[in-house]
Design goal:
Mean pLDDT: 84
Order of helices and strands: HHH
Helix content: over 70%
Strand content: under 5%
Oligomer: single chain
Number of strands: 0
Number of helices: 3
Shape: rod-shaped
Radius of gyration: 32 Å
Structural class: mainly alpha
């Protein structure tokens, strides 16, 4: 998976929820500084946002990991096939060289 661009990161829901939680916490702190009132349920909302963001993020990572595992399995299959074909070609080339050397020896005698 290539590196994510800034717009691709901004489209992810977990990123948006985390950004919302950051802005909410800044807003709650500013509200507290300006009005000298505390927002008790606001921090519960922050915890909920961060919890949902972490669940979505872990699911996204698990999906990415399974995709990577399937890509690795496909790559291993291709490498195995390449190795098998390479061994066949090298075996045929070795036999041809041996045949050519025996023909050269026969021609010398």
């Amino acid at each position: 998976m290539p590196m994510l661009s800034t717009t691709a990161i901004a489209k992810r829901v977990d990123f948006q929820l985390t950004a919302a939680a950051i802005f909410m916490s800044i807003g709650f702190e500013l509200w507290h500084l300006l009005t000298d009132r505390f927002v008790p349920h606001g921090y519960l909302a922050l915890m909920l946002l961060l919890g949902v963001a972490s669940v979505l993020s872990s699911r996204s990572r698990a999906k990415w990991y399974s995709e990577q595992q399937s890509r690795m399995a496909a790559l291993d299959a291709v490498i195995s096939e390449y190795q098998q074909l390479s061994d066949q070609v090298l075996g045929q080339a070795g036999r041809k060289i041996t045949d050519f050397q025996s023909e050269m020896d026969t021609a010398k005698n």
